[in-house]
Amino acid sequence: MLRQIKPRNARSKRALEKKAPQLNENPKITLFLRGTTCSENIQLAMTDLHSLKRPLAKKFTKKNAIHPFEDASSLEFFSEKNDASLMVFGSHSKKRPHCMTLIRTFDHKVLDMLELYLDPDTFKTLGQFKNTKCAVGLKPLMVFSGTPFDSPTPNAYTLAKSLFTDFFRGQETQTVDVEGLQYMVSISAGEEVEGEPAPRIHLRVYLIKTKKSGQKLPRVEVEEMGPRMDFRVGRIKEADEAMMKEALKRPKQLEPKQKKNVETDIVGDKMGRIHLGRQDLGDLQTRKMKGLKRGRGVAADEGDDATLVEEEEEVEAEETPKRTKH
Fold it and tell me: How far, in Å, CA of 185 to CA of 142, rounded?
């Protein structure tokens, strides 16, 4: 159970109401922090990620003596102070070189973390690609390639997929203008082979260009925009079950109201069920025939039946051929 704070005055009450859970939450802000020792490559990588995340990002340049996996109290303080749900922490050491830690919080408490080690040999910054860049504040297309991201059991790759999706999601919208789809983020990983090192995570960013094709739909081309990053997977901290269950709760007001006797099948088609009352077959309209016409009384009905029988016998007698005597 999460701790609840009672306000002491009206000012603190307004502040708590602002931070309280809302029906429609604000977009997640990412805070970029650096440790006491941080390599130049990590600083450049964080600068490029900050450029892609703007304006929903804050970057601190001062050094912070923080060890995320040993003591997360400082991270929780920064999260609450800046109202940031995501954090990227950069550090460098002999044991963990060029380390970038992705951190996600819930209610300003650390939910889960993932450690990634940047490869300095294949790293290229955003400025090393001499081409046009996308506008600020646009939502990207996202592509995850590789079986490790679709593993049924939670692992470092499924956690990386969840964190990167949260990182690049931006503001939630119901409709997206096609003109606003200007770049694409591709994250891929190779196959896992037993006895070999874990596959690396490759992050690429491509610029989407549309050209004339002579048809109704334009021809789409992609051009690498940068940055280019390759990561090795390091330590992970999985989310606590109780906290994750609390984080995934949806308000009842946002849940769609289920209509009675209306269902949706797997394909997405609506199927309705209609309940009919008991039908009275006594007043059912049938085909009108003279032979089935009733008389005015029961006696008349009996007389008509006898007449019908006599007429039938006469017709049968006429139809039978007469035998001639020789």
Answer: 5
